[in-house]
Amino acid sequence: MNYVAAPRQLVGRMEALADPIRLRLLRLLERHELGVAELCAIVQLPQSTVSRHLKLLADQGWVASHREGTSNLYRLAGDELDHAPRALWGVVREEAARWPSSRQDDLRLERRLEQRRQESLSFFAGAAASWDALRAELFGDGFARAALLALLPPDWIVADLGCGTGALVAELAGAVRRVVGVDQSAEMLAAARERVAGLSNVELHEGDLGALPLADACCDAALMLLSLAYAPQPGAALGELARVLKPGGRAVIVDLLPHDSDDARRRLGQAGMGFAPASLRALAHRAGLNGVHVTTLPPAPEARGPALFLATAHRKTTGPLAAAAR
Questions:
Q1: Which CATH number characterizes residue 224's domain?
Q2: pTM for the whole thing?
């Protein structure tokens, strides 16, 4: 779209540039948003003078501002300017940059930006001890999980094997193309169906981890979160997990480390007493998973149960299991 400025508007904008102080201010505001007090310190002029020049520049459309706390922050109205003013400013700016006063402004601007950085570092140095609690108080902790879910490729199909009441299924549904939940408990699945009602990209199946009711190589990723310990034959469950993954598909397993709390096992209704990392790695390799990495998870402060591990792996891309999926 071609734009032709009205004569009065064009003259007004040109007159706004006919002052060295205003040109110095515009050079600074092109580089950073700054408040009046900061501009006064940089150009070394009183607030009344700086404010008067900023008002004229704002009236002629050269600067824009927004409120932050109790102060206004100003910036050059770059995108809001039409072609003619932008071209005019480009010519004038090159000349103003050669002035000794402009070079002094640049040095004082850099000093002010360094002060900002130091003020930020000082804040975090004092807040480090209470930062997590403060952040949780102000924002909760859901944003961290949302950020992690956003890392998942949106075209993936993800299986939650041993999905229970569907809490994770519901969260995953907003991040990927399709979520498949499997659980052997009809009661758990009834609660899951109620939770995911209305989510069109979720399917739930009743089935055993050792004989999943899913097709070969149908998922990009599969999760077993606190469900492997319920399998009477963990090796068979891991074999089924590998079977439903596409070649190269990702596996994530969280479960219990070895423990001696029979009370915990009975309360949870689990078949086993946890998995040693070396045993888990061996089972996963035999099942057709490669790159198995097992990490001990630090117990949450409020946790009262046995400690957990996190295992990640991927399905083999070569060999009999992968070839059968092609």
A1: 3.40.50.150
A2: 0.62
